[in-house]
Recover the amino acids of this structure.
């Protein structure tokens, strides 16, 4: 508890007070209470299920259905038990639960008030379509606005995220999912009021739950996939003792160059993978050669120079890597045709390979190897500029220089490797705060 | 079996089409709206990935039309024949781009769709027309629809399993079990959506269709993404498996051959789909422990090594697999592949037997497979599980896999 700043506690206290005001002046009709109890039980059940199967996010259709069905003050009670009983991952547990309940109550109250003011409850009861979509849409907007405003506040005060960053994109990101949940909530409300009753309304939740489950599965599978790629890279790092962390840093530098060239997000991501996996073929080179101190014989050098082809052989079956596969094969080509494995010249070398070649050389120069110390970043950039045209594509070198000039070089710190951060002088002050 | 299903579907479709052409369409706007929904659902159908329901939106729309008793409070008059005709036409239309691109056969999918929709409509419409449901009241009606859909889904499972059985020749029991398990996921969502759509259209009219198909469309999209990421994940595991081949520890194609043969044996032994996935990953990575060896085992043939050395390599492999973030069940199989079979889980028994078979067959010439099977049979006292060896023999005899292709 001691880590929570006082202003965040004051903020939460204010929000709780607001939530209590939201639920004040309840109408006293028994039929209404049954609906509140049923909806909050369903919401709590959904939250428990989500915690059990590790879904991400909150399940809004029930809350929004409550806002569309009940008077605002009663609707505000629906999230209360579910949020107070929900599972919280981090300390302080109690404060987080109270916060979750309070901000959801305010959001539901806002949605309910807007919906009621536009005559939504009559539209739902009489199932006046398409007019019923208007108050529902407005309610979703209000819900989203209230939640993002409150969320941004707690991020700024509690987690010390800078205010501009806390709010940026929060609303836009949450609007689309909440809108879909709003449609499901509207359907629930309409069916609830229809002759078929709450039984039919609860059926709406089943497809929503499945959709949610699929989404969670997708994220789990994606995480597993990334872990596998990391394992592939770790295997190379273990084999090739003194290049620890090299792969990930080359991935980062490739990504910076790709962004600077103005490529679209998908290609930027593919180029990051190209950088990460560029040396994966070293798995096929005998460990003895990779770790050898002292000069290599021409025979040994030829064996090491096979690694781009080994790497290509390994990754060629991975469909999503796309042009990254060409980068793995050609990252040791030089513009003047003196590189390997094929001795390609100029634009014969795929663009992705030219990006990775620059990133690879840059990181090789700026990190410490057993046989020499790391060079400072400006010296490495000078060296790259000197070799541009003969060895490297000048366009990629310029892009790297510009990207480093703006963002600085903050390599990912992996165990056993001291980082060599480089921050461009003029912007050092305002950048330091933006990077966690 | 397959011919019977196709023939009955064709008969049903033909009869319904003829009757509808004779009588004409009732309530055209409703028919058009549902036809459009089914068509869109079919257009977004995914192919390739093995999933239970490839077009959930199309299936839900078709079932909802079969169960539609009223439109915005007014009783509807379309009969069984019109339901089948509209669904058939829309499915055919939506399937045109898929067929044009040459992606897989449409006939099984269409036959299932026509038969299930016909079954639902035949069960529902006579009861509805006699006014049975009106006596029950609203909530009971909703539950009755759900019960009917559950029945339909069960029939659909039997149909799908029968079609898969006659297509692939795999045993019927495990196929049916897999289909039934799939019901809990997307299958239940399709049934619930079908029921909800029918009820919602009865209350608010056709506006309910766009409002409610949006969430299901998103489910369909995220299923697609899920299938895509699963594919790349499998590809990545396959490349990780190739690392030992490229590093020169094992001969080319060994991991892939062991994985394919293990899968066939696992299927023959009636493993479920999740168990088969674990088995396949484990078989692909069973040799990965050799990456940690300083000197390669001659020709990567671990089956000839002393037991203690085999177990040591297996443990090293398990440690590597645990790092990859794969299901920990895979790591367990890799770790225990060298144990005596009585202490092994089923997947590890299969991997051990198939691996030994592949190593013995390699470079053994034309008589190799028979001799390898003979050697495996002689070692069933401790190393190899007898039922797995027999299953392997059956798979090899059936699929003519006695001489595995290299590379």
């Amino acid at each position: 508890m001691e880590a929570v700043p006082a202003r965040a506690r004051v903020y939460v206290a204010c929000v709780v007070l607001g939530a209590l005001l939201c639920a004040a002046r309840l109408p006293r009709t028994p039929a209404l209470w049954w609906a509140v109890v049923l909806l909050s039980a369903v919401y709590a059940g959904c939250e428990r299920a989500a915690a059990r199967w590790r879904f991400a996010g909150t399940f809004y259709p029930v809350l929004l259905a409550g806002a569309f069905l009940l008077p605002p003050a009663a609707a505000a009670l629906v999230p209360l038990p579910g949020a107070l009983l929900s599972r919280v991952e981090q300390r302080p547990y109690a404060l987080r639960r109270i916060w979750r309940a309070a901000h959801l109550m305010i959001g539901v109250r806002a949605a309910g008030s807007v919906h009621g003011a536009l005559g939504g409850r009559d539209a739902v009861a009489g199932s006046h379509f398409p007019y019923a979509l208007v108050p529902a849409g407005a309610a979703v907007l209000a819900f989203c606005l209230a939640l993002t405003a409150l969320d941004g506040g707690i991020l700024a005060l509690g987690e010390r995220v800078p205010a501009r960053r806390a709010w940026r994109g929060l609303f836009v990101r949450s609007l689309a999912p909440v809108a879909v949940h709003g449609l499901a909530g509207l359907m629930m409300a309409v069916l609830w009021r229809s002759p078929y009753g709450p039984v039919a309304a609860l059926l709406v939740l089943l497809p929503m739950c499945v959709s949610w489950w699929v989404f969670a599965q997708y994220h789990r599978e994606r995480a597993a996939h990334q872990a596998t790629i990391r394992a592939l890279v770790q295997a190379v790092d273990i084999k090739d003792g003194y290049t620890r962390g090299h792969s990930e840093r080359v991935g980062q530098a490739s990504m910076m160059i790709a962004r600077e060239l103005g490529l679209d997000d998908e290609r930027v991501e593919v180029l990051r993978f190209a950088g990460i996996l560029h040396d994966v073929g070293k798995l096929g080179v005998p460990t003895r050669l990779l770790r050898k101190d002292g000069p290599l014989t021409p025979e040994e050098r030829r064996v090491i120079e096979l690694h781009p082809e080994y790497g290509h052989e390994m990754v060629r079956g991975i469909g999503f890597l796309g042009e990254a596969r060409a980068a793995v094969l050609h990252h040791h080509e030089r513009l003047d045709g003196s590189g390997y494995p094929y001795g390609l010249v100029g634009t014969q070398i795929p663009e992705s390979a030219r990006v990775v070649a620059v990133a690879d050389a840059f990181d090789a120069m700026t990190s410490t190897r057993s046989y020499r110390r790391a060079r400072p970043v400006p010296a490495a950039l000078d060296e790259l500029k000197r070799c541009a045209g003969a060895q490297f594509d000048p366009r990629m070198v310029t892009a790297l220089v510009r990207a480093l000039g703006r963002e600085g070089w903050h390599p990912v710190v992996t165990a056993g490797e001291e980082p060599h951060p480089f921050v461009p002088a003029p912007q050092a002050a305002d950048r330091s705060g933006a990077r966690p | 079996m397959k011919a019977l299903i196709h023939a009955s579907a064709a008969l049903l479709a033909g009869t319904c089409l003829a009757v509808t052409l004779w009588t004409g369409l009732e309530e055209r706007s409703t028919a058009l709206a549902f036809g459009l929904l089914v068509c869109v659902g079919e257009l977004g159908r995914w192919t390739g990935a093995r999933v239970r329901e490839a077009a959930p939106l199309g299936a839900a729309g078709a079932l909802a039309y079969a169960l539609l008793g009223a439109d915005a409070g007014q009783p509807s008059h379309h009969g069984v024949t019109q339901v089948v005709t509209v669904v058939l036409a829309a499915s055919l239309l939506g399937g045109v781009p898929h067929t044009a691109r040459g992606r897989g056969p449409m006939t099984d999918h269409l036959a299932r769709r026509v038969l299930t929709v016909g079954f639902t409509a035949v069960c529902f419409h006579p009861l509805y027309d006699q006014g049975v449901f009106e006596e029950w009241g609203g909530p009971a009606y909703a539950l009755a629809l759900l019960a009917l859909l559950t029945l339909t889904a069960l029939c659909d499972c039997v149909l799908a399993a029968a079609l898969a059985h006659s297509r692939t020749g795999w045993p019927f029991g495990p196929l049916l079990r897999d289909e039934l398990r799939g019901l809990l996921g997307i299958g239940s969502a399709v049934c619930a959506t079908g029921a909800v759509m029918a009820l919602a259209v009865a209350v608010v009219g056709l506006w309910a269709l766009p409002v409610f198909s949006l969430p299901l469309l998103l489910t369909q999209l995220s299923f697609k993404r899920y299938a895509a990421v699963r594919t790349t994940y499998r590809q990545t595991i396959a490349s990780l498996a190739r690392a030992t081949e490229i590093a020169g520890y094992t001969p080319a194609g060994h991991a892939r051959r062991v994985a394919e043969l293990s899968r066939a044996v696992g299927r023959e032994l009636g493993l479920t789909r999740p168990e088969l996935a674990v088995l396949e990953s484990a078989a692909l990575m069973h040799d990965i422990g050799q990456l940690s060896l300083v000197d390669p085992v001659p020709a990567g043939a671990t089956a000839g090594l002393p037991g203690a050395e085999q177990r040591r390599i297996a443990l090293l492999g398990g440690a590597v697999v645990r790092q990859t973030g794969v299901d920990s069940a895979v790591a367990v199989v890799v770790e225990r592949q060298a144990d005596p079979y009585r202490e092994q889980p089923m997947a590890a028994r299969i991997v051990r037997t198939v691996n030994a078979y592949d190593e013995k067959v390699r470079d053994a010439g034309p008589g190799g497979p028979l001799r390898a099977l003979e050697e495996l049979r002689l070692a069933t006292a401790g190393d190899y599980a007898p039922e797995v060896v027999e299953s392997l023999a059956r798979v090899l005899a059936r699929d003519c896999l006695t001489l595995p292709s290299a590379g």
User: Anything to note?
Assistant: Residues 208-246 of chain B form the longest helix (39 residues). Residues 49 and 227 of chain B are 6 Å apart (CA to CA).
